[in-house]
Amino acid sequence: MKKWLGSLVALSALLGACGGGDTSGDLEESITIGDNVEDSTELTFWTFAEVHVRIFENAVERWNEENADRPITLTAEVYPYDQMHNNLLMSIQSGSGAPDIVDIELNRFPDYLQGEPQLEPMNEYVEPVIDEFVESRLEIYSKDGDYYGLPTHVGATVMYYNEDIMDEANVDINAIVTWDDYVEAGEQVVNNTDALMTTFETDDIFVLWSMISQQGSDFIDEKGDIIIDNDINVETLDFMAELVHDKEIADIAPGGLHHAEEYYGFMNEHGAASVMMPMWYMSRFLDYMPDLEGQIQIRPLPVWEEGGDRSAGMGGTGTVVTNQSEEVELAKEFLAYTKLSEEGNIDLWKELGFDPPMWDVWESEAMSEDNEYFQFFHDDIFEILVEIRDEVNPVNITADTPSVSDELTTNIFNNVLRQNSQTAREALEQAKVEIENRSSD
């Protein structure tokens, strides 16, 4: 609790006059849904991802049709990522200004579970359907047996291949089974085309996290101990550095992120033959790399050893109800209707291209109906997902997760991948000390 309050003091200095949840100066977009319905109850929803609003638009429409006696008007407000999360913390600390419903990104979620969570438990809605869901996706937003956040996707990590580049390099993507195969294919790509094999982010952690999760490792273990410097993690980061500095088949993503404008332009112009990202990244291709339509093929990740896992569950947004809501029960019921129902999970695929956390819908007929994602990529996406569904390991999220993320993106990736000024072991051992020191403050 002391550590959490300390971070809030720092945030207060950063936000200045924005205390108490006043975010009007930072609002990017406000969307009112269902405002044409008489005698409706008003609810507010905050998000940092505009695309997430789509599933709430559909949910409000369905809800109001099915519940004419208690309709809803939802005001969805979109804010910049950091500002939204920071203002939410300030609102919770001050006891006022928080919305009814809000998206909280995975890496920031532990901040809101410190002390006594000011979020509403969703157990009455989660427990009856938990067997139909990827349970690990619900567990990462829980504390002491209470489920606070409802997931937005599984986040199964896959490899996106540019088949035009791979064909030019005379590489059969279906023959890439192991990471050794991947490196060999990368050498053919670099030798026979103008493209790199892949890129690594320095401003996000999904690539390394996916690669170690495949091997049963993590940055934090099940007991909450920091294991960022274990042998698997060191060897995996060494492998990434080798691809950049020795093999020269990989480089840092332009802009430092696979979500940067510079990166989108780079990929759109055939800058790299592949990128390793979760399934939810499909929408980025449609929105920001449209010239690649029909060229991108999705495949499982290469394995580290025969019979190894070919995916990992990465990223996530837990949607919660705050205890400041004046319509707590309605907000909880509506959120469950949006995120835990079969219709809501099918909508996650149809509207956003996300892999729904409800297993049961993966093989339903509705998931195989033609849509823009099948047209952009190929029509066997869910056949691949069903094939790797049992190879998605859970990740451990604790109060130290934000510090882990900060060390990786501020120091480790820059020193090891970008500047080549530290070995993987040096950087990870140093990071462990820093994280443990922060945890003990």
Query: Taking all residues together, what is the mean pLDDT?
Result: 90
How big is the Rg?
22 Å
Question: Helix- and strand-based class?
Answer: alpha/beta
The global form is globular
- Major beta-sheet overview: 5 strands, mixed
Strand content: 5-15%
Total number of β-strand segments?
12
| Lateral arrangement of strands in the main beta sheet | 1-3-2-4-12
The helix/strand series, from N terminus to C terminus, equals HEEHEHEHHEEEHHEHHEHEHEEHHHHHH
Low-confidence stretches: 1-25
C-alpha end-to-end distance: 11 Å
Portion of residues in helices?
40-55%
* Helical run tally: 17
Provide a descriptive summary of the structure in words.
41% of the residues lie in helices and 12% in strands. Strands 1-3-2-4-12 form a five-stranded mixed sheet, sandwiched between helices. Strand 5 and strand 6 form a beta hairpin. It has 441 residues and is an alpha/beta fold.
List its salient traits:
globular; disordered N terminus; 41% helix; 441 residues; single chain; five-stranded mixed sheet; 17 helices
